[in-house]
Amino acid sequence: MTNVFITKTSTFLPNEAVSNNDMEGYLGYINGRPSKSKAIVLRSNGIEQRYYALTPEGIPTHTNAEMVSLAIKNLFVANPESISSVDLLTCGTTTPDQLLPSHSIMVHGLLPEIGVIEVTSNAGSCCSGMHALKYAYMSVKTGEKQNAVCAGSERISSIIKSDTFEDEGKHIEALEANPYVAFEKDFLRWMLSDGAGAFQLQNKPNTEGISLRIEWIELASFANKNDSCMYMGAEKQKDGSLKSYQDIPQKELLTKSILSIKQDVKLLSAQIVTQGFYLLKSFLEKHKIKVDEIDYLLPHMSSYFFKDKIYNILKENGIGIPYEKWYTNLKEKGNIGAGSIYIMLDGLVNSGKLKKGEKILLLVPESARFSYAYCLLTVC
User: Fold this and answer.
1) Are 197 and 71 a contacting pair, CB within 8 Å?
2) Backbone φ, ψ for residue 132 (5° rounding)
C-alpha cells in the first residue's frame, strides 16, 4: 500500500468574528432579556470569539454545504483548474442542511468543476470529520483513489438561536454550584459556532513546502457501554433510550424543544475524559510510538474547562504531554464540532512553526455517545 499525505489544508469562516459581548445580538434574547448564565459559561469555556453564518440581525448568510464548498475551493486557490483532478469527496458534520439529499452530495452540487466522482457523507458529531478523513485516507492508501478531498464543518447557529430555547434563568443557581450543569442547552448555546475546514490527500508529497504523512488513524466507540449523552431530534427517556422525532407528534416538536441540541451533563462529567483518553496509551503501544516522540498535540476540546483534566488523565496513564507541545485555536475560532480539528491543523500548518520530521498527534473526543478518534502525522 502507498503512503498517504495531506498536501493542502484550508479553512472557511463565515463573516466577521463575533466577540463575547456581541453574541446575544446575533443569537437573540430569550424572553427579551439578557442571559443570566452567559458570563458563567463563557468564563468556564474560555472562548473569546467565534463565527456565525448569520448577519448581526440573525439572518442566515451561508448554508453548511456552501461553507464546505468555499473551504474546498480555498485548497485550490493557487491553481483553480487542478480541482478537476479530485477523484473522491467525503465530508462529515453534525448539522447537515437537510435530512435528504446527503450533506456531501449537496457540497458536490456546488462544485460542478470537480466532475463525476465518488462522494460519501459521514453523520454524527465531532468524530464525523475524522471518519471522513479516514475514508479518504484508506481510499488513497489502497490505490483506489489518488487525489481525495475530505472536510468537516458545522452550521449550528440557526439551531442555537433564542427561538429554539426555553427560559434559561432557572439554571443560574445550578451553574454557580456545578460547572457541568453549564453543559446543558445553555452551555451549548454560548459555545458552538460555524465554519468549515478541508484537506487534500494524495499518494505523494508536495514538491515544494511541507506535507503531512498520515501514519495511522484509530477510531473507537464506547456506545456499547453508555447511553446517549448529546442528542438532537430526539427526546431522552427515563430508561436512557432516545425517542425519535419521527415518533413525536409534530405539535410537540417545538413545545418540547425536540429540534434543539441537548446534553446529558451527568454522563458527560462521568465519562468524556476518563473513557477515551486512557485508550490512547494502547494505540501508542500498538504503533510503537513513545510519547516523547510527539512534538505537537492537537486536542479538540469543547472548552478550556477540560484542559487540565485531559492533561491529568494522560499523565496518570504514563503518556503525559507537556503544555508547551499543545496547540489549539479554540479561543480565537470557537468550537466548530466536526470542523474543529481541520481548522486547528490548518492553523498549525500556516503558523510557520513546523519542521520536517516532527510528529503531530490529533485527539478528537465526541460526547454524542462517546466516540474517540486519534491520528498521528509526520511532517515531511
Assistant:
1) yes
2) -60, -40
Contact, 173 vs 127, CB < 8 A? no
Chain centroid, CA 50 distance in Å? 14
Residue of 114, 110, 69 whose CA lies nearest to 91 = 69
CATH number of the domain that residue 335 is part of: 3.40.47.10
Give residue-wise pLDDT tens across range 147-169.
Answer: 999 999 999 999 888 877 554 44
| pLDDT tens-digit readout, 271-284 | 766 777 778 999 99
* 55 alpha carbon, distance to own chain's centre: 23
Q: Which residue has the higher pLDDT, 67 or 171?
A: 67
- Structural domain including 370 reads 213-224+266-379
Helix (H) or strand (E) holding 375: strand 371-379
Q: What is the pLDDT of residue 174?
A: 52
Beta strands in 79-211 (DSSP E): 88-93, 118-123, 147-154, 195-202
Q: How far apart are CA 196 and CA 185, in angstroms?
A: 23
Judgement on whether residues 31 and 75 belong to the same structural domain of the protein: yes
Examine the domain organization and report whether 179 and 217 are in the same domain: no
The position carrying cell 491543523 is 345
Q: Does 241 lie in the same domain as 140?
A: no
Q: Looking at the structure, do residues 163 and 256 belong to the same domain, yes or no?
A: no
Q: Does residue 207 fall inside a structural domain? A: no
Residue 208 is assigned to a structural domain of this protein: no
Contacts 24+ apart (CB under 8 A), 282-288: 283/216, 283/218, 283/374, 284/319, 286/218, 287/215, 287/216, 287/376
Residues 104 and 16 in one domain: yes
Give the predicted TM-score (pTM) of the model. 0.93
How many distinct structural domains can be found in the chain?
3
- Measured between alpha carbons, how far is residue 327 from residues 30, 56, 244, 316 in Å? 35, 31, 38, 21
Residue 35 has pLDDT above 90, yes or no: no
